[in-house]
Design a protein that fits this description.
5-stranded antiparallel β-sheet; 7-stranded antiparallel β-sheet; 24 helices; alpha+beta; single chain; 4 domains; about 50% helix; 19 strands
Length: about 650
């Protein structure tokens, strides 16, 4: 019976579904191998062509062979079928193959559910506000496809489907908010799988050679953000300690922990300053703190050269409380092994620098005087601070000090330490970040990758390790006002780092304040923060048990409110002329045969198909009634006279007394 046969999917609905799923796949295009992107693109193009031309689907044995080949390709590319990257790639390939089975509404619904899973996988790679907004838009579109496939009309319009999808998502938003706030949190980030990062862009390295930090300063990415419990100290005092470089091969410095027996003693002056660091993932184990740390982050340790080392690489955003002393002395009783290591220089490198330092030492100058002579050279001679220094050869320190005299912080720190070691003074290079930018919209400090910095430490008897920053002798504004104030306008500093344009500066602050709020209250909504939130609103004894009770009560309230709204709409629809005509038909059929009383679970097609079997002579009339009611009830644009036409057909329907 044609009126009750399954209707075709419709070209428009198929193409809309393909577009919505393609939008979900788009962010993964740069993360999966090229052959997977190509295969997926071919599958979408072929399915779109089949829908457009009305071709039949390929046989099942071809799809089975392609599925086996896809699994083999994943194994060959990733070495496994499990794990984040391999599993996501396998999901993408299998979803693409499922397109070739898209024959019925059931197949479309399976694809839509897979699309929801695909949306979740994107958060395994990125959890930014932009990612969330993009995926919400994609979910809105794919939910509209879900709505469209419920229409009986073959060509539903996009606007009603999108409107219905938006209403559904808006109705789900209160329940989503309740679940997010009240559901008991577990330790760890919102999305606990490791993030893939690139060491050349995301943070400091365990080695330093000419140009390494200047390249890092071309990135405007945020390294970490800091909330101070008291007013922010002057920028010139903000040295965020990272890897300490001990070993030099003539061109490259390499990090390494001090081989001595731990910290050799720290004398501090005054009270420590307290602050909270939100560190971005950088795949290394360094945690950053101001010199010198007054506490240790849980799960980390403090080395003898004051490096704060985490127990495992920082693969997810990490928030930790810290306190530091800005006035201190440490290393007065430094281990002799460390002091010997801090004097070591490779033979045969930088002879002019070694000769200059020998002159200072032969003149009988004190260690302090030697330090000042080196700083005076940087201060008085024509040295220039720049992000685009010339390339240096084998004797990089000699070429920098006596020939080019143009460099970034690593050039000044490296050459200074070489001079100190050549003069017999223990010295080492310290890398990290210096300064930061205060965001007035959030009252926190932003420390970007462009603030990457290198300075020196020199050991002097009865004074211990003292910080010396030769960059400050050449470019004081770099230390006191930040890198943007020190770099000429013509050099390639990132646009968001420059501060000359007030409108651009405010836009940068606004964007970062939103990102920081997102990080703190969404991605960083930890058990501790959840408990503090409830204590702030008056629940001082908040615990896991109370949270579950509050969650159940709040969920019941939200569902009850939504149910009341739906019931009001149902009451209004009870007076709908279309519903009245449909109920009249149900009563008429039930009167003619008690077996035809409509069941609560029966839809229009199922019910009228049963009625047509009982009264075969009315099959065509029931078919017309079914089409009219389905189009008027579920179609995108029902006719204004549908209810009247339906009532007329119901009245004209004659049921013979002998029907069964």
């Amino acid at each position: 019976m044609r009126g009750f046969e399954p209707r075709p999917l419709g070209t428009g609905r198929v193409l809309a579904l393909l577009g919505a799923i393609a939008a979900l796949l788009l962010p993964h295009a740069t993360r999966i191998p090229l052959w997977i992107s190509t295969a997926t693109g071919v599958a979408f193009a072929v399915r779109a062509l089949f829908a457009w031309r009305g071709y039949g689907m390929p046989p099942q044995w071809i799809l089975a062979a392609l599925a086996v080949a896809s699994a083999g390709g994943i194994w060959f590319s990733y070495g496994a079928l499990f794990g984040r990257d391999a599993a996501v790639a396998l999901l993408i390939l299998m979803l693409s193959l499922k397109l070739m089975e898209l024959r019925s509404t059931r197949d479309a619904l399976v694809l839509i559910v897979l699309g929801y899973f695909l949306a979740i996988t994107d958060f395994l790679y990125s959890q930014t506000i932009a990612t969330a907004l993009y995926l919400v838009t994609c979910v809105w579109c794919i939910t509209a496809c879900l709505v469209a496939f419920q229409y009986r009309s073959q060509q539903p319009r996009a606007v009603p489907a999108l409107r219905a999808s938006a209403v559904m998502l808006a109705q789900a938003a209160p329940l989503m908010l309740v679940l997010f706030v009240l559901f008991p949190r577990v330790q760890g980030p919102l999305w606990g799988l490791p993030q893939a990062t690139s060491s050349g862009v995301t943070g400091l390295s365990d080695s330093m050679s000419p140009g390494s930090l200047s390249n890092l300063s071309l990135s405007d990415g945020v390294a970490f953000r800091v909330d101070f419990a008291a007013p922010v100290p002057a920028l010139g005092r903000l040295y965020w300690r990272g890897p300490v470089m001990w070993d030099f091969d003539g061109r490259t410095w390499r990090a390494g922990e001090s081989p001595g027996a731990g910290i050799s003693g720290i004398d501090t002056i005054g009270e420590p300053i307290r602050y909270t660091v939100t560190l971005e993932a950088h795949e290394m184990r360094w945690l950053f703190a101001l010199d010198v740390p007054a506490q240790i982050v849980e799960g980390s340790r403090l080395t003898g050269d004051l490096q704060l080392i985490a127990g495992r690489p920082v693969r997810n955003r990490l928030r930790y409380d810290m306190s530091s002393h800005l006035d201190y002395r440490f290393g007065l009783a430094e281990d002799a092994v460390n002091l010997q290591r801090a004097r070591r220089l490779p033979r045969g490198f930088n002879p002019r620098s070694v000769a200059l330092a020998d002159q200072w030492r032969s003149a009988g100058a004190s260690p302090r005087a030697i330090v000042q002579q080196a700083l005076s050279m940087f201060r008085q001679q024509p040295f220039f601070y720049t992000l685009v220094p010339p390339e240096l050869g084998r004797d990089s320190v000699d070429e920098f000090l006596f020939d080019t005299r143009r460099g970034f912080c690593e050039h000044f720190a490296s050459s200074f330490v070489v001079l100190m070691r050549a003069a017999g003074l223990p010295a080492r290079v310290v890398t990290g970040y210096q300064g930061g930018v205060l965001n007035p919209l959030g009252d926190y400090l932003m420390v970007r990758q462009s603030e990457a910095h290198a300075w020196a430490e020199v050991w002097i008897e009865n004074e211990g390790w003292i910080r010396v920053d030769p960059t400050a002798a050449v470019s004081p504004q770099r230390i006191e006002a930040g890198i943007a104030a020190a770099i000429p306008d013509g050099e390639p500093l990132p646009l968001l780092v420059r501060t000359g344009n007030p409108w651009l500066r405010q836009m940068r602050f606004g964007i970062d304040a939103m990102a920081n709020g997102w990080n703190q209250w969404v991605l960083g909504y930890s058990p501790d923060r959840q408990m503090r939130l409830f204590q702030r609103v008056g629940f001082s004894d908040a615990n896991w048990h109370n949270l579950v009770i509050a969650l159940m009560v709040a969920t019941g309230v939200v569902l009850g409110a939504l149910s009341l709204v739906v019931m009001r709409r149902l009451r209004r629809s009870a007076t709908d002329p279309l519903v009245g005509a449909w109920n009249a038909l149900s009563r008429k059929l039930a009167t003619a045969s008690p077996k035809l009383a409509r069941q609560a679970h029966e839809g229009p097609e199922t019910y009228l198909m049963r009625a047509a079997a009982a009264f075969p002579q009315t099959r065509e009339a029931l078919q017309r009634i079914c089409r009219l009611y389905a189009d008027a009830r579920y179609g995108p644009a029902p006719s204004p006279t549908s209810a009247k036409d339906l009532a007329r057909l119901v009245r004209a329907l004659h049921l013979e007394a002998g029907g069964h």
